[in-house]
Amino acid sequence: MSRGASQLSFINYSNREINCKIVYYGPGLGGKTTNVEYIYNNTPEQIRGKMIKLATQTERTLYFDFLPLPLGEIRGFKARFYLYTVPGQVFYYESRKLILKDVDGIVFVADSQACRMEANQASLDNLKSDLQEYQYPVDRIPIIMQYNKRDLPDIAPVGDLSRILNAWQRPEFEAVATTGVGVLETLKAVARLVLRDLQSGSSR
Ligand SMILES: Nc1nc2c(ncn2[C@@H]2O[C@H](COP(=O)(O)OP(=O)(O)OP(=O)(O)O)[C@@H](O)[C@H]2O)c(=O)[nH]1
Ligand SMILES: [Mg+2]
Questions:
Q1: Domain CATH code at residue 165
Q2: Any residues with Cβ below 6 Å from ligand 1, and which?
Q3: How far are the Cα atoms of 107, 114, 172 from residue 178, in angstroms, in the given order?
Q4: pTM over 0.90
């Protein structure tokens, strides 16, 4: 067992698939949906599933965004990744927590703008407490940090973001989700961690 209670990816023996759940988490308007949209738009139609968005009229995520993607193989099983985003607006606590259930890997999308540092921290605290409530081992669950919106003025230096948000020293990427900078790199990194985690897990 590598991750104990959090090691819950669903194995389907009949079609030899392993389903992995990746959640894009982070503060409101940080760029979670933009990440997943970019991935959708840059994946061949034949392999991607349908992207489902549950949005308000202003395009802010109301419940979640969802995109199925086949990404890699493990011990003869196809790994199918399900990408979810959470609604970042502060008051959607319950939806965020529900979406984290059975998560295999997390991308924390931080907003690099200096004025959003507190929102980043609050969201990270929220993530930690949700994981703790589910009794998922925060120190072992695959998490990638993404510092998004690097194209904007008045952004915090990466060193500051790293020091303040990445005390657990997870792999980190700079990104501009609107143009795709860093987006696929982030996805590959989280997929790699999740597959490695699956490979090392004896209970699968
Ligand atoms: N300049 C710039 N704008 C970005 C970037 N990423 C996202 N945005 C913009 O930021 C706004 C919010 O992006 P979303 O992807 O909807 O953010 P979200 O994290 O899904 O927000 P919620 O669903 O409300 O939690 C949109 O107008 C995006 O176009 C970026 O890297 N640079
Ligand atoms: Mg969104």
A1: 3.40.50.300
A2: 26, 28-34, 59-61, 85, 87-89, 148-149, 151-152, 176-178
A3: 17, 19, 18
A4: yes
